[in-house]
Amino acid sequence: MLTARGQVVDKVVGLKLGADDYVTKPFDMMELLARIEAQIRRAGAPASSPVSTPGRYQFGGVAVDFRKAEVTRDGSQLELSAREFQLLKYFIEHRGATLTRDELLNEVWGYESMPSTRTVDVHVAWLRQKVEPNPRHPQFILTVHGMGTSSLGRDAPRFAPRWSLFFLDPLLT
């Protein structure tokens, strides 16, 4: 539960009504993300998890076959460019992490830092259009604004967008 109501009685009522956690405004985005990751870890794999298949990952209605470099959503083949597939693969390999534009440029494109480029933003938008059920309200590829520069000392501009990929379905190894 995320709310502006911070009195102890409000927290107790919220938790007794079934909330798994209670966060009050103002809050720190890194703390919120850590709480979400903890909830996902505690949730574990659902009882109805699909059968594991080597080289595959499934989330929502999207299935990724790494060996064939194929992606389907709700059974229909998605047409991803090679770069979009590499970006999706990198997101999956680093699911739950918050990734900077510079990190993605370096690891997916092989570029050194290029602070003025919007290449990553455009490709993330294209990828969202293809894998998200409602790209205007993404569920899997989330933009986290206002994170500042990373602790790794990258030269990302202050308040540059970073992307997090949160998958609620289990990894299919």
Task: Give your account of this protein's structure.
By secondary structure, the protein is of the alpha+beta class. The chain contains 5 helices and 9 strands, in the order βαβαββββαβααββ. It has helices at residues 8-16, 29-43, 82-93, 101-109, 119-131; strands at 2-3, 23-24, 56-59, 62-65, 70-73, 76-78, 98-100, 141-144, 162-165. The strands form 3 sheets. It has a 4-stranded antiparallel sheet, with no helix packed on it. Strands 7-9-8 form a 3-stranded antiparallel sheet. A two-stranded parallel ribbon has the order 1-2. The two termini are 32 Å apart. Mean pLDDT is 76; it is low at 45-52, 148-160 and 165-173.
Helices and strands in order, then pairings?
Layout (H helix, E strand, L loop, with lengths): L1 E2 L4 H9 L6 E2 L4 H15 L12 E4 L2 E4 L4 E4 L2 E3 L3 H12 L4 E3 H9 L9 H13 L9 E4 L17 E4 L8
Parallel strand pairs: 1-2
Antiparallel strand pairs: 3-4, 4-5, 5-6, 7-9, 8-9
Major sheet: 4 strands, antiparallel
Topology as H/E string?
EHEHEEEEHEHHEE
Q: Give the CA-CA distance, first to last residue.
A: 32 Å
Shape type: globular
Number of strands: 9
Q: Percent of residues in helical segments?
A: 25-40%
Key terms:
single chain, 173 residues, alpha+beta, 4-stranded antiparallel β-sheet, 3-stranded antiparallel β-sheet, 5 helices, 9 strands, globular, disordered C terminus
Outline:
This protein is of the alpha+beta class. The chain has five helices and nine strands, in the order βαβαββββαβααββ.
